[in-house]
Amino acid sequence: MPKAKVARKSTAIDMTAMCDVAFLLLTFFILTTKFKPKEPVVIDIPASHGKQIKDKDIVLISMAPDGRTFWDIDNPKIRRSTLEQMGERYSITFSTDEYNKFANAGAIGVPMKDLKAWLAMNPESRFAPGVLKGIPKDTTLVGNELGDWLICSKKAYKAELNKNAIIAVKGDKTTDYPSVKAVIKTFELKNILRFNFVTSLEGKEETAEK
Amino acid sequence: MAEMNTDSGEGHKKHKGGRRSKKISTRIDMTPMVDLGFLLITFFIFTTTMSKPASMEVNKPDTVHPPDKDIQVPESRTMTVMMGKEDKVYWYMGINDPDNKKIPQINITDYSEYGLRKALLEGDKKARTDNPNPAARNPKDTTYAKNGLIVIIRPCDNSNYKNVVDVLDEMKVTNIKSFSWADIAPVDKTLLEKSGLNQ
To answer: What interface predicted TM-score (ipTM) does this complex get?
Structure first.
């Protein structure tokens, strides 16, 4: 009986297909990565045992360690609509170019009267020290700009998406209480009684019973 | 595929005595390239920081348009928590009414598990045992949450945002449902000053 001959095959396999897959995945990951937008100030948020939040469709009010307040919305359409209403309220007309710049400007932290000049700056000098004064939130004044931003954002959400805006507050651990108080007071004045504090998730889940 | 057609039109002609160019295989070893590809994928995956923000929902009572009647709270079940500077917490039970000579005893603690949380849990336990309403001791009762400890959170002007979040988080951890958040009252301010505590 003749011995069954095993055909000797080369062990080298064609790597081309695998290479294709690897680079396809690489391309996919690079393209789908959303870059963190440039933040005007570094905010170190405290931790809590809260539940996770989806960071879509929120109006984010950030508080810097020194108490300056910033307003931010991700959705460019809502931003545009908010600015239209803010312009109406403060009798400022913005050009199409300014609207487009505003839609991609990230967090806003300048008083309304400086907004036009701020948008005209080149992106680098917008974040220069001393430029971002924060949105005025003095509750003793009638024209509380932070309140107007909130009202306009709420209206914009309602008009564009027919959704209720979720108001989120993001503060630094060291933000002093009077600044926090001023922001919360503004919310109350504008009848926003339900809002969220953005925190990081506390690692271990501790039990209450001890 | 990776092979390329190297045959030019001349390749079909018969070479007669001419010098034959050496045919080199165009197949290249793709293994290092695959290695590089996956190395980069791994690098990008590991350097991407996953941000997992959490949120804490806050419901504030309407203080601008308050309800007509004040809600009466039993003082024996009321605890006032004041956040001072340098991460100190001052708390007392009952109410602070200097006119009626009711000066509560101030306790000083911190935000740790054995500080504020312990005080809250003990206070809640005591409030439930002292409560004449049996619903306070029956977790299945619908009014169970209302009959425990009532906490009034009063941040001093020297406290910071982290302190507020910490105390509100403690409410969640200790499962205290009745709490309110208000600004520091002048009587409490005087009490702290009299006790020699720097807010």
So the answer is: 0.71
